[in-house]
Each structure stands twice: as structure tokens, then as C-alpha cells.
Amino acid sequence: MAETYKNYINGTWTDAIAGATFENRNPADHDDLLGTFPQSDAADVHAAAQAAADAYRTWRLMPAPKRGDILRKAGDILNQRKEELARAMTREMGKPVFETKGDVQEAIDTAYYSATETRRLFGYNAPSEMENKVNLSFRMPIGVCGIITAWNFPMAVPSWKILPALACGNTIVYKPSQDSPLSGNLLAEVLAEAGLPAGVFNVVHGAAECGSAIVEHPLIKVIGFTGSTSVGKHIASRCGDLNKKVSLEMGGKNAQIVMPDADLDLALEGVLWGAFGTTGQRCTATSRLILHENIHDDFVNRLITRAGKLRIGPGLDAATEMGPVINERQLARIEEYVRIGREEDGALCVIGGDRATDTPATARGWFFKPTIFIDVTRNMRIAREEIFGPVLSVLKARDLTEAIDILNDTPYGLSSSLYTSNVNDSFRAIRDIEAGITYINVPTIGAEAHMPFGGIKGTGNGHREGGWTVFDIFTEWKTVYIDYSGSLQRAQIDNY
User: Fold this and answer.
1) Rounded to whole angstroms, how far apart are CA atoms 214 and 244?
2) Whether 321 is catalytic
3) Are residues 209 and 298 in the same domain?
4) pLDDT tens digits for range 402-424
5) Which of 11, 107, 185, 487 is least crowded, fewest Cβ atoms below 10 Å from its Cβ?
């Protein structure tokens, strides 16, 4: 019998008030039911928001380094439970265990980094223009934060938002994706064991109704969202109407450029990992490969050979290199984009293009073969729209200038990559590529927890998670003036 999971509100595991539930199934074996989870609505969100608002009164007053002690302990617990957590995550969202262990490691890194930063929540002081007066500024917590995340990094991405927000003195209402809800409960277990007070971190499971209730709730002051561009834009619109602070991490259509002077073996390994790691289900995935015309044909032939040898199967199998797609709906979306690509004039599918269900290991899961299109041009839909699957479009460029122009010609601007041995070309690319992240001789995936993460154009709204910049999302600035002159000194008056 499948296990029944609950929401986590005010330190207590509780069913949805209305009693509705949804199922969580293994994408590598849809007969494998992990359990049922609460289908929460506005009433559950209200209970969580009220608990978080009550807890905020005391949590914000705890000295920041003491909050850091709890986060550091959470990192220790994550480290102790890494293998267990990784296997649970693989079972619910599919990617191989070596990837989910990396997912947990990012949460560990973020926990330790956030803990350290609780001693570095620096303000700025400046000289006053007046005599006997001091000017100070402080970072202040904001209140209850609503966090809504996608399923593909069910431990790492939530940690990027939740742990820094907690470090700053905020409290949390968190809605995990319905495709990876168990990871949210596991994170709640870890934080509770680390000593986080009841009500500071709350988990409510559910669909769009639950997410909308988080955005709309008057006690929730900040929204942190990772997901599709269409949903993110809607959230931004509502937050604008409600005058709420919002941070958006949305889609990408990332490209890797390869020049003739590059280490081609390294570039080949890079695009295989960038395009087919996590089955292409990353916002930073390499979905476009831009090859200099002088190396195009040879590189494509080598790429086809290597992609055809990737081992597809359940993520819990140690031999698996590429796991399943998350669900039937996403599988159908990928199939539709392959159909579109085949019908676009000139594009040629040279490998893959259909489901991988021809072995006992893949027969009961949502698997898709590594797929490569060549002769793709920049205006084709498969070169412009996010597919979120193991589909790579290969484009050709005459030189670096044209390659960068092709790379920039997309509605998104998250990640980018250039393979070259020319240092001048490297710095030209760093200057001219329109993206929040640029890698040199590295794939488009591989962000590190202590560096800013985010993009431009249709990818984000200007904020950066990770590193020191995430603390700008979850704090407000307070400016303080202290006048000890004993007399009225008038600023903003012409004192000259």
C-alpha cells in the first residue's frame, strides 16, 4: 500500500483541510506509486501563512549568527543523509543517482554558505553632510516568503531560495512541484531536526490553485519562483498589482559555440553533458549547438556516434547515463516539438526522435531517445522555443561574430558557452553574449552555489539567486540617521 504524505504546517504534519490528494509516481516506472500527497487549497495556504507570520515575530529577533548555526547543522544532516535523499529524489523525478547526489550537494553547499553569510549581512555607512551626525544602513528581513519551485532540482533550487531567506530572518511558505513533492517533505524533516522553530518553514502541496493562493495571500510579502516563463509572467503581473517583491527564474534556450581552435574532444564531452544531462530538463540545458562551418560535418558525425551510445534507463541503475522524462505530458510535448522540427523546411533529424520503450528497463517509463537536428536555422521554432527535453538543434556559423549573433537571437538569456583556445575571442564573447551566465570551455550547465545565478530577457526579472546577490531578494534596506548635535540641522535644504 502506498504511503500517505502530509503538509508541514507550524511544525505539524497535517492533511489538506478539504481532504483531497494527488499521486506521485516514478517516471522510470509509472506502476511504481511513491505515495499520495495533499491537494491543498487557499485554506491550507492561509494556515501556513498565519503560522509563518506568527513565527516571524521571534525568528527575526534571533541573532543572525544563531540562525546560521541552525543552517550549518542542516548542512551536516543533509551530508549525513545524502545517499538516502538522492535515491528518494531519483525515484520521484528520474535523473540518475550521480546527478541527484549533486543536487543534494548543492543544498549542502548553500546551507554552509548561508550559515557563513549570517555573519556578513553587511550594511553600508557613509559620512554625513552635517556636523555631529552619523549615517548608517542595515539589511532588514521582509517577513513571510512564498517559494514556488519546479521539479527538476527538487533539493538544490529550493535551497537557493529558502536557506538564504531563513538566514536573513524571514519565514517560509513553500510549495514544491507536484512532480517532486517528497523532496519538500524531506527538506522539512532536515530543517526540523536541525532545530528550526515551528512555523518558520512550512510546506503546502498542491497544484495551480495552491500556487495562486500563495501569490495572493496578504501575509506573504515576497515571492520566489522557478518555473516556466508563461507562469512567471503571470506571477509578476499579480505581484505588480499587489505591490509584492518577486524574483523570477524562468526558461532558457542556451547555446554552446565551438570554434575550430577548440579542444574538440572536450567540446564534444561538453555538449553531450549539457544537452542530455538531466535528460535535457534543465533551464540551463544546451539546446542549441553553434558550430563553425570548418568543423561542422566532422563534429556532427562524432556527436551522433557518441549520443547513440548513451545508456538510457532508470536512474537507480548505476549504469544509466540518461534517465526518463518527468511525465507523460512532457513526453507528449517533446514529441510535438520533434514533429514541428521535422516539418520545418530544411531541418533534419539525424538521431532519435521517438520514445525509448524498446527494452524491459524502459518499457514502463517515460523515456525519450537523445535527439539531434542538423541544418537548423535561427528562425525555426526548435531553435527559439524551450523544449525541456533531450533535443539538440545544431546550427552553422561562418565566424565568431555570426555565432554570437545567432546565440543572442532568442527570447531568452540564461546560460551560454564558448569553446576556443583563443583568449581574445573568449573575452569578446564574454563582452558580447547576452546572457546572465557565460562559460568558457565548459558546458552551459554547472552553476556553483556561491556565485550569482540568473538571466536576462525572458529568463528573469533582474534578480540573481546564489552567492551574495540572493540576499538582495530577501532583505530590505533601512537607512538610519543619528544626529547628536543638539540642534535642528536641515538636510535637503540649500546649506551652501
Assistant:
1) 12
2) no
3) no
4) 999 999 999 999 999 999 999 99
5) 487
- Verify that 213 and 294 share a domain, yes or no: no
Verify that 365 and 293 share a domain, yes or no: yes
> Among 41, 19, 14, which Cα is nearest to 207's?
41
Percentage of residues of the chain with pLDDT beyond 90: 97
Q: Looking at the structure, tell me whether residues 390 and 475 fall in a common domain.
A: no
Are 160 and 275 contained in the same domain?
no
How does 194-207 read in b/e, with b if 16+ C-beta sit within 10 Å?
bebbebbbbbbbbe
- 98: in domain: yes
Residue 493 has a pLDDT of: 79
The pTM of this model reads 0.96
| Residues spanned by the domain of 337 | 254-440
147 found inside a domain: yes
> Per the domain annotation, does 455 fall within a domain?
no
Question: Residues 92, 99, 106, 249: which is the catalytic one?
Answer: 249
H or E segment to which residue 90 belongs: helix 82-93
- Judge if 204 and 293 occupy the same domain: no
Spatial separation of the C-alpha atoms in residues 156 and 105, rounded to whole Å: 8
Residues 236 and 260 both lie in one domain: no
pLDDT digits (tens, 9 = 90+) for 230-268: 999 999 999 999 999 999 999 999 999 999 999 999 999
Under DSSP, the state recorded for 465 is B
pLDDT reported for residue 341? 98
Nearest to 203 by CA among 54, 15, 471: 15
Distance, in Å, from the CA atom of 266 to the CA atom of 310, rounded to the nearest integer, reads: 17
Return the pLDDT at 496.
73
Tell me the average pLDDT of the chain: 97
Q: Is 83 known to be catalytic?
A: no
pLDDT reading at 1 higher than 70: no
* Candidate list 168, 283, 321, 465, residue with the active-site label: 283
